[in-house]
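Form 7-S
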Amino acid sequence: IDSFELLYYYDEYLGHSMWYIPFFLILFIYFSGCFTPAAQQSRMPLPALLLVGPSSLYYWYLVTEGQIFILYIFTFFAMLALVLHQRRKGLALDSNGLFLLHSFLLALLLILAWVGWLWNDPTLRRKYPGVIYIPEPWAFYTLHVRAAPAPA
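Output:
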């Protein structure tokens, strides 16, 4: 095995798993504690609503650059399942849970827009073959932005 191949494997596959699996597990555990009786259901304050955008952008970048869509979507569906389960118990999300759920939802919409925008890019299609096509931002940057000639 070439040492660069081994280093790439450790960085891209093993390293990402060791970092992102605990990260999303902690987010889910935190989310599971964000429920309150429905009568005391809270709403997100305006500053929190304004921060959903930057938070979603962070998750978009994390998922696209880290190539962890499967882990992200699994966590998102687990969060939705927990919401449905807790709703049957008469519990609803508090403002923290609403913030996290809205951030994940907007991040999913950003990911879908990103994929839709780059869907027909032949170079990125060759670089990211397979069923799940989510190009990394750095690949787009190096291909289309950095390589673009400077305006005269």
